[in-house]
Design goal:
The chain starts with a helix and ends in an 11-residue tail after the last helix. By secondary structure, it is mainly α. It has one domain: MetI-like (MetI-like fold).
């Protein structure tokens, strides 16, 4: 078992989930509440990683983060080093790759909130921010949790984008999925099997949590009917 790769993957998961909570929730709220006629273009852009091959997305992310891009030049000017083949570059690519897994379930949860409750909050004098924090967000916790869980699971199993942007540097960009690939290439099937079993169990647990949430209850604290 490659514990170094596992710990790096968990670190990547935590950072990406935290970043997407910060970035994805405002995007999801705007998509759920906006009536802009061209909103579908933003929706298509957010969902693009769902249909793009990971190697294609990884290639474009490599160009976007490279030393000749505005992002790459700015990062190099501030930090004195490039983004490709670093943990920070891995985080940036993973945020883009997992964005729809956070935005779509959260946006659906926001859109399902009864408009009458929003109108009542407005009539009572609450601001949009207060309405969001006191009405929309509490009623959308299941969608928010689903987004976090799906993002965590998706980032856990990344391969193509990770390999294109981060390469295979032990302790820096070598994640669990790349470790499994290396084990198979080296014909070390026993190590690959152990690591794969960990990912299998983690994925099953994540899906079980998502389905439990979407059933409208909890295994530990079921709702009374």
């Amino acid at each position: 078992m490659d514990w170094e790769a596992l710990l790096l993957t968990i670190k990547l998961d935590v950072v990406v989930c935290g970043a997407l909570l910060t970035i994805g929730v405002p995007i999801a709220y705007w998509l759920a509440s906006s009536r802009w006629r061209w909103k579908f273009l933003i929706e298509a852009t957010v969902a693009l990683p769902l249909v793009l091959p990971p190697t294609v997305l990884g290639f474009y992310m490599l160009l976007a983060l490279g030393p000749r891009s505005p992002v790459g030049k700015t990062y190099d000017w501030i930090w004195g080093r490039g983004l490709p083949f670093t943990f920070e570059g891995l985080v940036a690519a993973s945020i883009v790759y997992s964005l729809p897994f956070m935005v779509q379930p959260v946006s659906a949860a926001f859109a399902s909130v009864d408009p009458k409750l929003l109108a009542a909050s407005s009539v009572l004098g609450a601001s949009r921010l207060r309405t969001f924090l006191r009405v929309v967000l509490p009623l959308s916790l299941s969608g928010l949790l689903t987004g976090v869980v799906l993002t965590f699971a998706h980032t856990l199993g990344e391969f193509g984008v990770v390999l294109m942007v981060g390469g295979n540097i032990p302790g820096v960009t070598r994640t669990v999925s790349i470790s499994i690939y290396d084990n198979v290439q080296a014909l070390d099937y026993s190590s690959a099997a152990r690591t794969s079993l960990v990912l299998l169990l983690a994925s099953f647990l994540v899906l079980s949590v998502v389905y439990a949430i979407n059933r409208g209850g909890s295994i530990i604290w079921p709702r009374k009917r």
